[in-house]
Each structure stands twice: as C-alpha cells, then as structure tokens.
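Blinded run. Sample ID left blank on purpose so nobody reads anything into the name before looking at the predicted structure. Input follows.
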Amino acid sequence: MKVPLIVAALLFAAINAHAGNDAAYIWSDDEGSVRITRGIKNIPERYRGKSKPITVEVVAGGSHQAPSGAVDVAGGATTLGFNPEVSPITVPAVFHKSTARDAWIDTGSEYVVITEKLAHSLGYSGRKAEKRVFHTPSGAVTAPVIILAKMSVGGATAHDVPAAILNFEGRGPVSAIVGMSFLSRFAVEINGKEGLITISLPLER
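Blinded prediction complete.
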C-alpha cells in the first residue's frame, strides 16, 4: 500500500544521511505494509537496503534537535482501523488531555500540522513562534512551529511534539495531520489490505 500524501499541506520529510541506529526508518514489507521502525537493527536484513532514515529537526530556542519527548503506548501496542478504500487515512487524535479531533495520517509530512483554529483552542499562538520554510507541491510556505505539550493517537501518547501551524482544506472535523514528528517516535505498521494501523513502543531507542 502506498500511503497517500496530502497535497494541500504536504511538508516533505527530511531524509538525512547522518542518521544513526537511533533514527527512525520507513520501509515496506513484501505484503506492501508501510512500516516505521526505530533503529536499523530492528529491520529484517532483506529490507534494510530499501529503507529510508527519517530525521525530524525542531526549531526551538534557535537550536535544531531531534524530537525527544517521552512516549507511552497503553498495553504496549494500539491498533486502529481505517477504510482502505478511502484516502487519506483518518484517525482520532487527542491534544493535551481532552481536545479531540479527527486527523489524517501522512508519512510524507515531516511535522504534525494543526490549523490556526485548533492552535488557538489549545492556547497556542504562532506570532512569537519560530518560523520554518516548508516545500510543498504548491511551492515554499513559511509556517510557525510550536511544541505540543501532549498528543495521543489511539493508545499512543507523545509529549513535546513539534507541530506546524498551517491551515489546510480539511474534511468536516479534520483539523490536524499526523506527521513524522509524532510517528517517528514509535514503531508503526500501516496495513492497507486489512485497514489497520498498529502503533507500538520502539524496540530500540
């Protein structure tokens, strides 16, 4: 399965050659399931040659660093269903402790993306946040990057999640994109045939 890319607000992932074993990698198995795995040693050898390292840089206090906030998965793994006939993949997401929104999964987006309206409801303002330039199919755009205190998808929770504030044409209650600044902290399998996403703690960090 090829995970759909959201053209309206695609923030291309940064693929850096210096990624070490602690980096997250994206790869596909023989069944076409897309996987995100922490550490090259956790990928079967026959797939390593086609895997791509993912490094997400964060603008925070003028420095660049990989996301390092705490993560947790209730029960060790959480599985969410989706309709494989519908694109993009939509999942429920919770911001902070109680603000729930539908969100799109996009492995081509370097960051989590939230709309200005959602950012405002969470108490964030992009006015004082540092800006980054992102390259989209429509050209370069500048957007503020904030740090979400807490974000959950199913039973998977991450703290201090970098997110870009950028309006995009959602669908109904969809007002967020789950990008690699969240996904790369976990081991993720997207099974397009069964319509299942499994998120678990990484084997190695």
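Unblinding after everyone has recorded impressions. The chain has three helices and 16 strands.
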